[in-house]
Amino acid sequence: MKATSTKVVASAVTALALVAASCGASDDAADAPAEDAPAEVAAEAPADEPAEPAEEVAEPIKIGIVAPSAENDLAWTQSMVDSVNRVAEGRDVEVAVSGGLFVVQDAAAAIRGYAEDGFDLVIAHGTQFGAPLQEIADDFPEVSFALGTSTDFFGKDNIYAYSVEAGEGGYVNGVMAAQLTQSNVIGVVGPVPAGDAKLYIDGFVAGAEAQNPDVEVNVNYIDSFGDVLLASEAAKAFVESGADVLTGTAQMVVGATGIAAEEGVPWFGTQSNQTDLGTDIVVASQVYHWEVVLNTILDQIAGGKLGGEAVVISLSNAGLEMEFNDSYALDAGIKASGVATIAGLSDGSITVPSSE
Amino acid sequence: MGDFFTVSVLVATLASGIRLATPFLLAGLGETIGQRSGVLNLGVEGVMLLGAFSAYYITLETGSAVYGILGAIVVGLLIGLAYAFITLIMQAQQGISGIGIYLFGLGFTDLLFQKNVGTPKPIRGLGEVNIPLLSDIPKVGEIFFQHSLPVYFAFALVPLVWFMINKTTFGLNIRAVGETPEAADTLGVSVNRTRLATILIGSTMASLAGAALALEVGIFQQNLTSGQGFIAIALVYFGAWRSYGVMLGALLFGIVQATVLQLKTLGIVEGANSSLLAMAPAVLTIVVLAIVSRRVAAPGALTRPFDRAA
Fold it and tell me: How many CB atoms lie within 10 A of CB B26?
């Protein structure tokens, strides 16, 4: 009897541990659909108070974001969270974020949770969420969903696809990197050859080679979005093999920027402004401004259109922005060539060769 | 392919392999001690995460990696106490309890990171320590004697763990309670006390493995360990519950990883072949595990709780 009781207690303790873990693991996910979830951004949103009491008080647009990495990863997820926060400055929106959902099934549960809780727009911020989203969207025809990066909205009237011409910023960075390198060897650390990572890297290689045909750009896709140690070792291998300029994309690059900072090697960033990862070494970052996508989608939702369209951000529509690190002493000539390349890409006089 | 077989690349690859092997080795040695006493801890990954975060956060706040390591040791001991309470006192099923510890570590470190740090902030790690004279030996010095302290510590532990398990009374007790706890109990060996000690050692070493990782890369982010704790557990089986076997497995895994990395860095392997090659360490581990499992038996009482009253 005693043994049985003990085992029951043990099971309860274990169950509690599991519950506690679940609460922590998907901190935002668990809270997301709850009433207090949108408070953080909602508090920052301007109160668009009507001039006089309206008969009907307009409800704020509720946006739920489901993303694979932390909301302040200085990369993929943060690019969307920052954009939504900027949109919130000009619109009456409430936002909840479920970051860190790298397991697709967990993300699917969060997407469904937002839809069930009456969110107006649910953003599945990861190509890998496309498969479950197709099924979930059918169950909630009144809810608008957005999937990125993707150009495919699966023929559904309530799914928007959004993507980014990441190769443009990659091209600009490549042009500048090719002028910074003394050894003519540049290293690139990528996750997997897909999505915006591949677009960025292909653009970077094209820009570097266009600027200096003698430059050798070595790309290492480490086959992981999260293995920081592997990214660190990849960067170290590049430096040891003569690379004197580095770049990379995805959230594991924090390992590579550590090596760049340690070795004093210039770094070019993408997705978010990565200056905080190394004020002495980050030259410039391509920053995603998803607010172009968000404003387009929100305008269309207001007009009754819940999906069925793909939206792309680029330098020409201000969805992409190149941010230079003022603390890095970049040669004025190199910066000027970067600015000229931005202008060329924006007006169409320069085009990025299409990826394979 | 000829680019790979140059002395400088081979030296860099081996040095990289040793660095990559270190977290596996530290965590694997700790788990070996635990499993030899009959305790399986599937929560190694979670403890590594907790150790990594505590070392990172304390270093970030104090500027001292030494304090960070001390913090990781304390955290490892605390988690070890919790795990011992769950499995020894409450006699919960070890596998499920370990998974609970893993999930707790994964979620709790993410929560703490989001609330206390926010945006990733680089820290200054331990840096390399060149061993006097030895580090000056051409090539050999670069491979073996130009690493950070955790690397030396991990490899120095291998003979110490072997000695402790095979040549000390405590080691004899560990083996006894891991094989036939009832017999050990009859001979006056406290099974739970012995297992408590091995759990605390294992948990502390897993925490140190996480700390070594965070201090090596100089940053923390969600799920920093990326499954390394689970690989460490696999390496215990790979190494047939022997410290030198675990070291061999960790080195093999690390060097294969480093080789793949170098082949891709040098552009020798590209595209789909590159992705296939990335699976090499895992495939190798599975193959060796399949071979080892047929030849070596696990500790007889592994995962079996001991209840004196039963």
Answer: 30
